[in-house]
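DM from R.C. (forwarded with permission)

"hey, sorry to bug you on a friday — could you get me a structure for this? deadline for the figure draft is monday and I only need the backbone to look sensible"
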Amino acid sequence: MASAAITLAADAPTLSSANTGFMLICSALVMLMTPGLAFFYGGMVRVKSTLNMLMMSFISLGIVTILWVLYGFSLAFGTDSGSLIGWNSDWVGLSNIGLTELWDGYTIPIFVFLVFQLMFAIITPALISGALADRVKFSAWALFVALWATVVYFPVAHWVWGAGGWAFELGVIDFAGGTAVHINAGAAALGVILVIGKRVGFKKDPMRPHSLPLVMLGAGLLWFGWFGFNAGSWLGNDDGVGALMFVNTQVATAAAMLAWLVYEKIRHGAFTTLGAASGAVAGLVAITPAGGAVSPLGAIAVGAIAGLLCAMAVGLKYKFGYDDSLDVVGVHLVGGVVGSLLIGFFATGKGQSDVAGVFYGDHKFDQLWKQCAGVFAVLAYSLIVSAILAFILDKTIGMRVSEDEEVAGIDQAEHAETAYDFSGAGGGAARNTAVPTPVAGAASKKVDA
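My reply, with the result:
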């Protein structure tokens, strides 16, 4: 008995400074993705909506952080209840967690795990905002973020990643967020835009990106931060799976960008910078759930297929008449579905687990049907609940700005600022300019305009 106790004590995980430092860096990289997303979206809209688009991402940093501390972490990763939600009263307010208390079975503190997962919770509702550009009240959006995180993101995160969550127990593979982040956000975007309707001038007025350099900057920051997003999700790299995910992230993103550009050249006759940026993001989305299960050759296939299908999907909004302003549905929903389902075909059984897909395993379709269950359950739940939330807010406080405010520019209407002011007075409408006036006995005197 004594020798068994000694063996158990020796096998118990101990805090690893290397893994802890690695995960803190990954957390910072994932945090950087939200400002990167803000730039990516901000460059894709017209000048008069730039600041609003930036703010719709940035406000998530504030709202979701506070909710995560108060109860979000407990709902997502607390003790399971009915395979649907978690709860741990000791985690409410994060006041009863020891500084060196380890996350379940790992070598990092709980605080490190929770802050890493917090960054996922922040960027997921921010992803939705791109579908709603130009037309949503900022106050309504802020309230939607709070409600959506509470009733959609936190429960879905528990389903997929929480011990006891039904998708987790079923064996649905989602390495870093294909279902919990991208399908979740993409389906929510579709649900909301079906409720709030189209922008003024949709399919009539030109709505081209006002700053493609800003789009490319944002895409570059997303690509950079995504290495933390993906590789960090293994919570260490003692067995090389995190390194595999890192490589597959790069490989799939490159393949998707090239596939999108080839499609674009054939379909539209040009290789565009917007296509390169969008293709890269499509590849990042698709490899997010799959990268720990596939080989680098599999990652090329996942990226290329996602790049092609997402490039085709972004045009569906014109065919079916839904106004997905910045192609959140076409890239994140479609890319998330593609990446999640392709696990059922390309999983080698040599990465994060011994689960193999159709092309590698003896039990050909076992994993594929599990992936289908996870994909379509999350899609349906997020779509329906998000539409209900948007409907309630629209009928109570109103989701949309007035038509006049939308046409004049949502930046001025909602933020009293403009992104670019060439008069030299600065961007803030409420900021007065000091005018120097010669006065006897003094060099100048400031007079408020």
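R.C.: lifesaver. Residues 366-396 form the longest helix (31 residues).
me: no worries. Residues 15-403 form a domain with the Ammonium transporter fold fold (CATH 1.10.3430.10).
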